[in-house]
Amino acid sequence: MQEKGTISVNTENIFPIIKKFLYSDHEIFLRELVSNAVDATQKVEKLAAMGEYSGDLGDTKVRVAIDKEAKTITISDRGIGMTAEEIKKYINQIAFSGATEFLEKYKDADTSQIIGKFGLGFYSAFMVANKVEIITQSYKEGTQAAHWECTGTTDFEIKQAEKTERGTDIILHVNEDSLEFLEDHRIEGILKKYCKFLPVQIVFGTREVSEKGEDDKEQKVQKDNIINNTEPLWVKTPNDLKEEDYLNFYRELYPLSEDPLFWIHLNVDYPFNLTGVLYFPKVKNDLTLHKDKIQLYSRQVFITDEVKDIVPEFLMLMHGVIDSPDIPLNVSRSYLQSDSNVKKINNYITKKVADKLHDLFKSDRQGFEEKWESIGLFVKYGMIAEEKFYDKAKNFSLLQSVNDDKYYTVEEYLTKIEPTQTDKDQTRVLLYTNEEGKQDTYIQSAKNKGYDVLRLDGPLDSHFIGTIESKFEKVSLKRVDADIVERLIDKGEKVESVLSKSEEEKIVEIFKKALNNDKLDLKVEALPADDMPVTITLPEFMRRMEEMAKSGGGMNMFGAMPVQENIAINGNHSMIGKILKSENEEEQQQLVKQAYDLALLSQNKLSGASLTSFIKRSIEMYS
């Protein structure tokens, strides 16, 4: 048997297209060829299980080998094999998929693990090889082994081969531009990236292990180096798994990460097929460190970790694996193509996560609260980004009080503060701090009025605040240092001033002169005598813009416009009265600077030479 012919394609340019455009990442060739070998192996196992193949299956491992001298890579399987006619049908006719035909023929049997789809994967070999050989023996009795050869043109040669064992060897003669793929570490890295969970054992070389010999002594022996775990956790039944199984699998996926908080096992077969395990990691404040950690597989073949269309944006902080044969891939199986199934899967994952969080909250609120620092990022992100998720999450989203360190749902908290923090317009005002240490003076002032203060210091809280205000009528959130406390929650009550109108005007002039700045926005306020003598605040809307700009979600206006602070002089404070009564201009200036610096210090805005001057002045004043 010997024959020469032409591969059936419509254009002479098909190979350059495959090499340069279809498979832009050259390492994909190994994934495709190993997947084909696994596919062929599963076919013969399926036929044996159905009684259509009665031979001995024997060793069904797929083997990958390098010959550096010959500059070859060989992928060998003990699968279904091919006859010469089948080579011409499946190899020479590009895009005629053997897996597709097999599925059609045995559509009533369970063939869900057959991988091949497009029939183009084999030709990715020509990205790295200037010649490819196939030596194959069909499982069918009485058939002749065949040897196919092609040098990357549309011409091929096929002849008889001496192979006696069932299966196929694909031999790649590596071109000069691709010699990197003859290095062991390079091939092993690709196999571990794409093939580490394939359902048939993949062997690459050997490894030395210790085992006991006949004399019961430890000895070193060479064993097959198995690359993959053929039964990853997500293909197993959740009822058969324990907590330690999930933790061990997480450690296998992310060896250097902390253990996760909890996880969700996905397992659905209608209206689409989807399996996987998604983990909630312990999230730090730098969200970018946690993104792009979900891996997408199709029938246990790694495809990509770019899953933004399948997984909602707010859940991209999760880690884990999703596997679905129903996710539409491009022809090179390298990335997603959008269709209705993608949206359905996206919605399903959103619902599963929301249901899981709600169940945890209802069944173990204390445990839920203990994990809130990390869980809260997922929940707030989702509430900001996804309306459907918000509708579910509003029932388990938590707010933490600085006053008692307790957690409340939004509704619980609104009920708690309604009697004390409703202003004259019947708006419930929620006070919050985003830097508790720096804003302690303002927090204490609010507490002295009987008000509660929330702790909202997370990376998403500047956006979350707006979401809460938009969902509830007559609810406002104000940062505790955005104004004097009397104006933060304006109840229409007036504190009598001890100063006359002329004294108020005089104190303003004294301050401007002492601070050498006649453009300061100074106002004299009638405040409780035990409040600060001077309070510096930034209007709430400017604080919002500033916070959103820092988090990357707002317009960075502050490089283009000046920040105008409000300075309130407490006319009822004894220090202000002392300034007015003083006949000594130097003493007046010292007191003004001291009061102003105290206000700056309370906001952590006093540093460098100004702080040194304040300390020196304080020592002189009280010595």
Description:
ATP binds at residues 32, 36, 77, 82, 97-98, 168, 333. Belongs to the heat shock protein 90 family. This is Chaperone protein HtpG. Pfam families: HATPase_c_3 (PF13589), HSP90 (PF00183). Helix content is 35%, strand content 20%. The protein has 623 residues and is an alpha+beta fold. The chain folds into four domains: 2-205, 2-Layer Sandwich (Heat Shock Protein 90); 233-363, 2-Layer Sandwich (Ribosomal Protein S5, domain 2), CATH 3.30.230; 397-488, Rossmann fold; 501-621, Four Helix Bundle (Hemerythrin (Met), subunit A).
Topology:
Layout: E1 2-6, H1 14-22, H2 28-49, E2 62-67, E3 72-77, H3 84-90, H4 98-105, E4 129-137, E5 146-150, E6 155-160, E7 167-174, H5 184-194, E8 202-212, E9 218-226, H6 243-253, E10 262-268, E11 274-280, E12 293-298, E13 301-304, E14 319-323, H7 340-363, H8 365-370, H9 372-385, H10 387-393, E15 398-400, E16 407-409, H11 410-417, E17 428-433, H12 440-448, E18 453-455, H13 461-471, E19 475-479, H14 485-488, H15 501-514, E20 522-525, E21 534-537, H16 540-550, E22 566-570, H17 574-581, H18 585-602, H19 608-621
Parallel strand pairs: 2-8, 12-14, 17-18, 17-19, 20-22
Antiparallel strand pairs: 1-6, 2-3, 3-7, 4-5, 4-7, 5-6, 8-9, 10-11, 11-14, 12-13, 15-16, 21-22
